[in-house]
Structures are given as C-alpha cells and as structure tokens.
Amino acid sequence: MSKYDDIRFSKTVSSYLSIFIIAAMAVLFILGAFFVYMYIKSGSEPLDPNSTEVKEVTIEQGASSGMIGDQLENEEIIRNGRMFELYLKLNSISDYQAGAYDLSPSMDFEQISKTLETGRVFQEVLGRLTVPEGFTIDQIATQMANQEQLSGEEDRFLELMEDESFINTLIEDYPDMLSDEILDEDVKYALEGYLYPATYDITEEEPNIENLIRRMLDATRNNTYNVFQSSDGYTITFEGETEDLSFHEFLTLSSLIEKEATSLADRSKIASVFLNRMSESPSMPLQTDPTIAYAIGEHQERILFEDLEVEDPYNTYINTGLPPGPIASPGEQSVQSTMNPSNTDFYYFLADSEGNNHFARTFEEHVENREQYINNQ
C-alpha cells in the first residue's frame, strides 16, 4: 500500500468516525431531551390527583417564581418547587396576583399557574352544556343526555324540577326572583323559563346537578331579573286599568315572544300585539300557537284546529290573559323587546312559510294576510 493509499484510508476512517460521533451525540441529545421532558412532565403532574384537601396559601406581593415554588412545595401542594419555577419560566408566566388562594394537591402546574395569574381558581373545562334560547325544561334535559359529562344525569335533573322540597329551598335562596307563583298547581315546571339560555362550562368529572341549576338561576338573576329591576318593574294597561306585572308574569310574556319571534324588530312588534290584546276590555285571548304546543307536550310542525280546543291552562285560545307560567327560557333579545315594545295598533300577526311575520290592525286585514301569505303559498 502506497503512502497515498494510507492517507486516503486515514481520511476515510476519520470521516466515518466523525459521522459516528455526531450520530452518537444526536442520539444522546434526543435521549437527554426526552428524559428532561419526562422529568418535567412527571414533576408538573398533581402531587395527589385524588386529594380532596384544600389549603389556603397566601402569595406575598413581589414574590419571585422561585419563592412561590419553594412555598408550594413546603405547603405540600406540589412535589418539586424548582420544577414549578422552571415550568413558569418555560411558559413565560411572571405576572402573579398576590393574595390568599385555596389550592389543592390535586391541581397540576397549569391549574396553579393560571390561578396565580388570574387571581381566581382555574379549573380545566371538561365539557360544555349549551342551552339555546327558547328551550324548555324537557329540551334542556335532552341536551344533558347528549353531553358526555352529563349523560345519565337528565333523569336526576327532571326529578329536581318536580322536587317540592328542592324548589322551596330555591325560593328561600332566591327570594328576590322566585315567588310562590311558581308553585301554582297549573304550572307544569316551577323553574320553566328561569334557567337562563347560555353555555355552561363543566369542570367536574361528576357534575353536581343542583349546583348547575343554581348557576342557571344566577345567570337569570344577573341578566333577566336585573333588567326587570332596573326599570322599577313592568306596568301594563290591563282591561283599561294600570297593573304591575310580577317578574313571573314578565318572564312568561317574554317566553311567548321568544317562541313566536324570528327577528329583533318582530319581537318588539309581537310584544305590542300581546299588550294591545291584554289591554282590551273584555280581554282578547292571546291566541299564540306555541302555548298549544306546550300544552300538548310535544313538538308539532303545524297546529291543527282540533289542537286549539285542548283543555289546558296554557291554551291561550280558550283562556284569556297570560298562561300560568313561562313556556321556555327567553333570551336577551326577547327580554329587551318585552321591556321596550313597539308602539303599534296591531292586534294580529302570522308567519309565512319563510318565517316572515305579517301584522294587521283588524281581523279583516289578518284574513287578507292569511289568504296571501298562507293559503296561496
């Protein structure tokens, strides 16, 4: 072998050796990164996922991430204070709210850090229950059945809707909003209309249905009831005399508008139709089809003439005035429209096949609208 061959051989060995060293370093780096990741991951998990213990921890003004980590480790909230400090730095979390917090060993790093950032206990959202505007108690129960965290709890929910003891407890807890009117024997569900339509976060593996109901009532108080109260109640002219509607009656009227309306402008006009009818002497029946559907207890694409004769307190074709209670949960637009009805002299309205409402001042005009928009379509 010539010296040139020796040189080429040496270079080849050197190249392979360099590649081997680089590959080995890459493998070691990847393994190191993996072990660091697993170390951080294991350290960020709850100290005791099954713990029900809650401790009050006071975070002082100006406390550093290291000081907070040490404090939480000493309080036995987390496993490793240094790991928590590293977690905060890697996630660029540095804005802590000083104060007293109720923390638990069952909380992970994310929950604890977001709690310290926001100043309130952060809980992971496991699911959401959406209650659309215009939903009834029965429809809300169906929504629960279709929601993973609440599936199987719909029967418990419906039981509570008819639990006299539970309802009386709620009346005691919400004396400003819930009155004995909801206990009237003709009312189908005492809380019909009082469970605010909104989206509710579910943060518990086994949600407490009673607490969920209270959250819905809180939302109604914060939204609907406060609107009612801010205007010092609600006054109408009933059979020629001025009369104050209770919140229960106001909510009932709002629910009728919710079920009838298709647009914001129509809601205010429909409110005026109902108020105009109620102001007549003797009172004209409200004659609103959604009350028939509620009385029958099932969804129908079209109300038949025979349905109008059903003997039920909610039938506004054979009974004058408002039905015994709400027939659904009204949303913000319907509540605002009830509070601010249009000033019209309409006494009739109907909806065509496309959902557009047509209003009339007289019965003759109403018949013409029916012929044009219903019979000829």
Outline the structure in words.
It catalyses: a peptidoglycan chain = a peptidoglycan chain with N-acetyl-1,6-anhydromuramyl-[peptide] at the reducing end + a peptidoglycan chain with N-acetylglucosamine at the non-reducing end. This is Endolytic murein transglycosylase. It comes from Salinicoccus sesuvii. The chain has 377 residues and is mainly alpha-helical. The model has no long low-confidence stretch (mean pLDDT 83). The chain has a two-stranded antiparallel ribbon with strand order 1-2. It has a two-stranded antiparallel sheet with strand order 3-4. It has a two-stranded antiparallel ribbon with strand order 5-6. It has helices at residues 3-44, 65-74, 81-90, 109-118, 137-145, 154-161, 164-173, 209-230, 247-260, 264-278, 289-296, 332-339, 363-375, and strands at residues 55-59, 99-103, 127-130, 199-202, 234-238, 241-245, 348-351, 357-360. 47% of the residues lie in helices and 10% in strands.
Beta-strand residue fraction? 5-15%
Question: Helix-strand pattern, N to C?
Answer: HEHHEHEHHHEHEEHHHHEEH
- As laid out across the biggest beta sheet, the strand order is 1-2
- Termini gap: 103 Å
Number of strands: 8
Largest sheet: 2 strands, antiparallel
Number of helices: 13
Global geometry: elongated
Low-confidence stretches: none
**Radius of gyration, Cα only, in angstroms?**
32 Å
Relative helix content:
40-55%
Mean pLDDT: 83
Protein structure class: mainly alpha
Membrane topology: Single-pass membrane protein
Keywords: Cell membrane, Cell wall biogenesis/degradation, Lyase, Membrane, Transmembrane, Transmembrane helix
EC number: 4.2.2.29
InterPro entries: MLTG-like
